[in-house]
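We both want to read discrete structure tokens more fluently, so let's practise on a single case. Would you supply a protein for us yourself, any chain you care to pick? Would you write everything just below, so we can both look at the same thing?
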Amino acid sequence: MAEAERIIGTPDIPEAAGDGPEQSGPDSEETAAAEQDGQRPGSEPDGAAGAEAGSAGKGKRKIAVLFAVAVVAYALDLISKMIVVAKLEHHEPIELVGEWLRLSAIRNAGAAFGFGEAFTIIFTCIAAAVIVVIARLARKLYSLPWAIALGLLLGGALGNLTDRLFRSPGVFEGAVVDFIAPKGFAVFNLADSAIVCGGILIVLLSFRGLDPDGTVHKD
């Protein structure tokens, strides 16, 4: 008997009593593939994570452009008004291009280009609402042209809102300083120009079907 067992041999004994046959199936194959790629099972692929990070980075850059344009527009408007109040107010107008374009300092209690002087408080609230809307929209901004347009609107709105809040006759009723006086047209300032340019750019982008998030749609 001992000789027979030696010839036939004894079966291999498992290393541990709890060991069983290897599991197979979709889950085990998925786990093995994930381990080979150096990822944890169930985690997102590196490509998806990279795309998401890249999209977030682009969004932050567009927001930076928006606020950079707004800061430049606001600073130019503020500095120009300070110079006009100090050097031009209560003085004779300065002719730049004969009678066609002059610098003439006036105080405007109405909206852009002197309209609606009886609704100063309403225009102040509208300017504040525009600023809030732009700030909320910036979170979904992925288009460079839209960033520039919204930056112009934001800078212009902040420029005139500063006058409404801090100039006489009082808070929310302050008169805006205007000084650019073309012949046959209303007197305006750089903030008004920024608002108009931003508005025109938004209209053009809308006609082209470009949305603030960078997508293009066709009606």
